Amino acid sequence: MTKLELHLQVSNGPVKAVEFISQHSQFSKGMIKKIMLQGAVWHSRKNTTKRLRRSTKELRENDRVDLYYDEFIFNQVPQPCELIADEAKYSLWNKPSGTFSQGTKYGDHCTVVRWAEQNLKPQRNAFIVHRLDRAANGLIIIAHSRQAAAAFSNLFKTRQIHKTYKVVAFGKVEIPKSPLKIDTNLDGKDALSYINSSDYNADKDQSILEVAIHTGRKHQIRRHLASLGHPVVGDRLYGEDKNPPMDLQLTAFKLGFICPFSGEEKKYSL
After folding, report:
1. How many CA atoms are closer than 13 Å to the CA of 78, on its beta-carbon side?
2. Chain center to CA of 106
3. Which of 118, 117, 143 is nearest to 129 (CA)?
4. Is the N or the C terminus of the chain less surrounded, counting Cβ atoms within 10 Å?
5. Which of 52, 12, 266, 6 is nearest to 139 (CA)?
């Protein structure tokens, strides 16, 4: 798979972006336009850097253009994300397994943020305020202004958003006292999860769990359950089977918070 980077400085301008890049790369103009639309071209002017999607953008002298091409990422096809609620200043989506929460320098066309930008009516900017693992699925909040993004980031920071997950784990998870508290530190930081219920399927030797988290550490539920000897079904990182036959069985299926704009209590579920 081809992977390359181009870092170009504009010495003479103005010049259209697609013309400039085509003069300094192996790509056709049509290919450059596709790479731009997928969010893999960046434009820097003075102290501002952002994705460059418009091929006719006029570049000036001393502007900088960075192109990041990864054939594997470029060829990925975005999966449809389901709109759960459009609240104008923010929206809630059902992110499918395999879809990224946010992009990288190599592009953002397979992210829930970009899907929201392209598919909401009327169209709006989109900002990520929290993340779901790529392998996980379920509810995710997208803000549509910097003000909304800051408001929700503060809610997450102060742990005022209640998140509940439906998880399928291997083995019989016993809950002698509900909820079962898991407070094993992760990466040197406090991490707190609660298993509120467990429904055991003896035929499959699996437990269907309802898990609430009060911190947001990386892979928190997956790591906590694996530490108990009950890894999540389909977990390639923390399970014993590194090539499982199914997707990660972890769904963010409930979100609740006080709306930072209306003051109303909001509850969403799949």
Report:
1. 22
2. 15
3. 143
4. N
5. 266
Give me Rg for the CA atoms of the chain.
Answer: 22
- What tens digit of pLDDT does each residue of 146-191 get? 999 999 999 999 999 999 999 999 999 999 888 999 999 999 999 9
Helix (H) or strand (E) holding 154: helix 146-157
Residue with tokens 């990520």: 128
Structural domains in the chain? Answer: 3-74 (3.10.290.10), 82-158 (3.30.70.580), 162-253 (3.30.2350.10)
Query: If pLDDT is split at 50, 70 and 90, which confidence band does 240 have?
Result: confident
Which strands make up the sheet holding 64-70, listed edge to edge?
3-9, 64-70, 41-45, 48-51
Q: Residue written as tokens 């972890």? A: 250
